[in-house]
Amino acid sequence: MQIRDLLGEGCRSFSFEFFPPKTEEAAALLERTISDLRELQPTFVTVTYGAGGSTREKTIDIVSRIKRDTGIEAMAHLTCVGSTKEEIKEVLGRLVDAGIENILALRGDPPKGEKVFTAVEGGFSYAWQLVRFIRELYGDRLCVGGAGYPEKHVECVNPAVDLERLKQKTDEGLDFITTQLFFDNRVYFEFVDRARALGIKVPIIPGIMPIMNASQAERFGATLPFRLAAELHRRRDDPKAVHQLGVAHATSQCMDLLMGGAPGIHFYTMNRSTATSEIFAQLKASGFVTRHEAA
Questions:
Q1: Residue 52 reports pLDDT greater than 60
Q2: pLDDT at 54 over 60
Q3: Is 293 part of the annotated catalytic residue set?
Q4: pLDDT band for position 127 (cuts 50, 70, 90)
Q5: What are the φ and ψ backbone dihedral angles of 214, each rounded to 5 degrees?
Q6: What percent of the chain has pLDDT over 70?
Q7: Contact between 210 and 247 (Cβ < 8 Å)
Q8: Is the predicted pLDDT of residue 291 greater than 60, yes or no?
Q9: CATH code, 3-288
Q10: Biggest distance spanned by C-alpha atoms of the chain
Q11: Residue 292 has pLDDT above 60, yes or no
């Protein structure tokens, strides 16, 4: 089923993001995580796509297997990095043949060690070009999502320009937007207001990642509210205390977002189920999730 139809049913969406593992140990962890989070009956899950297509085969395998074996609606990330139009066309064909109906179209980050994105000859330089290409090939047969940056993309110096680029991407055929993570809900609500004023009408799903590591959270580039930053610093050498803080803050974020009209929550799981499961349980206990919405 296409995600745009699930969002159109008017129920809150709850989704999880996974990334392809690089080791056998990581693969085993991902399998346990998928099994654990399957019990929460997410609206859909997504699988990321490595820089330079480094995990292309694993992405195709995992997203196809989730769709086939679990019955969960699955969406594959697809980037422009290191791929020609013909290579992207071939990947899209394989995904469609596997029954995948949902694609998250991204420009992608530069490969490791490179600071500037450079399109390969015969490839795409921008996500809007990829969205247009998908629509030209498949029309409405595929649901196409895209990324939004409440605090602007790290490579864009002007948030107004960044929003104009999102509008261009949406005009090419995005069905919904999932945001980059943020820790201050004011950032999300103001972003949505600016997007609506510019004429962006598609659902904008907030992306949430519970803080599990102080140093990691400080490197994400998202603004940490002062009180959160101070408390995180106080607990930084106590992993259990950081975990408790991360779950508590993310839970509070989710409740506030849903009360404020967000169409759902997209969880960046980092291939671990514990924090997400704890947050989800609290949302459900507080009446923010019903079985129908989670199915």
A1: no
A2: no
A3: no
A4: very high
A5: -60, -50
A6: 96
A7: yes
A8: no
A9: 3.20.20.220
A10: 53
A11: no
Q: How many CA atoms lie within 13 A of 166 on its CB side?
A: 34
Residue 280: pLDDT above 70?
A: yes
How is the chain split into domains, by residue range? 3-288
**Calpha distance 198→69 (Å, rounded):** 41
Cβ–Cβ under 8 Å, residues 211 and 232: yes
Q: What is the pLDDT of residue 53?
A: 52
Amino acid at the residue 102:
N
Using the structure block, give the residue that is written with the tokens 């699930």: 6
> Taking residues 67-83, what's their average pLDDT?
91
Give the pLDDT confidence score for residue 51 in this predicted structure: 53
What would the 3-class secondary structure string for the chain be?
Answer: CCHHHHHHCCCCEEEEEECCCCCHHHHHHHHHHHHHHHCCCCCEEEECCCHHHCCHHHHHHHHHHHHHHHCCCEEEEEECCCCCHHHHHHHHHHHHHCCCCEEEEECCCCCCCCCCCCCCCCCCCCHHHHHHHHHHHHHHHCEEEEEECCCCCCCCCCHHHHHHHHHHHHHCCCCEEEEEECCCHHHHHHHHHHHHHCCCCCCEEEEECCCCCHHHHHHCCCCCCHHHHHHHHHHCCCHHHHHHHHHHHHHHHHHHHHHCCCCEEEEECCCCCHHHHHHHHHHHHCCCCCHHHHC
Cα distance between residue 277 and residue 99, in whole Å? 28
- pLDDT value for 3: 95
Closest residue by Cα to residue 49 from 88, 72, 78? 78
CA–CA dist 37, 267 (Å, integer)? 11
- Which of 9, 17, 25, 231 is catalytic? The answer is 17
Beta strand pairing status for 143-148 and 102-106?
Answer: parallel
**Model-wide pTM > 0.70:** yes
In total, the chain counts a number of residues equal to 295
Question: What is the Cα Rg of the chain in Å?
Answer: 18
* Mean of pLDDT values over 167-188: 97
